[in-house]
Amino acid sequence: MGKVLDLSLILFALYVSTAAIAMARNLGEESKDDTEFVKASCETTTYPELCFQSLSSYASEIKKRPLQLAETALAVSMARAKSAKTYISDMTDYKGITKRQHEAVLDCVEEMGDTVDRLSKSLKELKSLEEGESKEDFWFCLSNVRTWTSAALTDETTCLDGFGGKGMDGELKSLVRAHIVRVAQDTSNALALINVYASKH
Q: What GO MF terms are annotated (predicted)?
């Protein structure tokens, strides 16, 4: 009786082990597919490498869903914009800052605040599409998302324009530019992925 029981336990253990290996293999393949989806989608953007770098870690949450991908891209861009706004706000105390530079920094902080607001509205509007809008409402909401995201890009460009001219050249301008350019690139990629989602409807 003991031997029969031992054999049953061994067979059960083998079954569980085989099932676990199969499950792990399936999960691995699914994870790979999710990552490939993000990579392929990012190829449609202006900055594909940056896109994949920013979004690949969310592949398992996105799960080959274009809407979820666009939402994640917007969320990443908004987080980047918030970080940039905080960083640039601290630049008002930059050592040796001139009056003109100070004004440009304040204007840029305001523009970045507008960027955050617009991206936040875009993300909220995009999430509303998950609730199943009518066809007319769908395109109305999507139009809003595109308009606000495009406007956010304009805000970012306006910020950089404030530092135009040789008199503004220097470390301060370079530091601000580095942060704003990254936000603009993320926002551009988000807009491209929104358009990819739209093209599927």
A: pectinesterase inhibitor activity
pTM listed for this prediction: 0.82
Could you give the residue ranges of the DSSP H alpha helices within the chain?
Answer: 2-42, 48-55, 59-62, 66-89, 99-128, 135-161, 171-199
DSSP label at residue 167? G
Token pair belonging to 27: 């999960």
Rounded CA gap, 171 and 173, in Å?
5
Nearest to 71 by CA among 31, 115, 125: 125
Q: How confident is the model at residue 136 (pLDDT cuts 50, 70, 90)?
A: confident
For residues 54 and 184, is the Cβ–Cβ distance under 8 A?
A: no
pLDDT score for 169: 85
Cα dihedral across residues 72, 154, 116, 120: positive or negative:
negative
- Sign (positive or negative) of CA dihedral 131, 78, 55, 186: positive
Tokens matching residue 182: 């990254």
pLDDT tens track for 93-129: 999 899 999 999 999 999 999 999 999 999 999 998 8
Q: What is the pLDDT of residues 37-61, one digit of tens each?
A: 999 999 999 999 999 999 999 999 9
State the number of CA atoms in the 13 A half-sphere of 148 facing the CB. Answer: 23
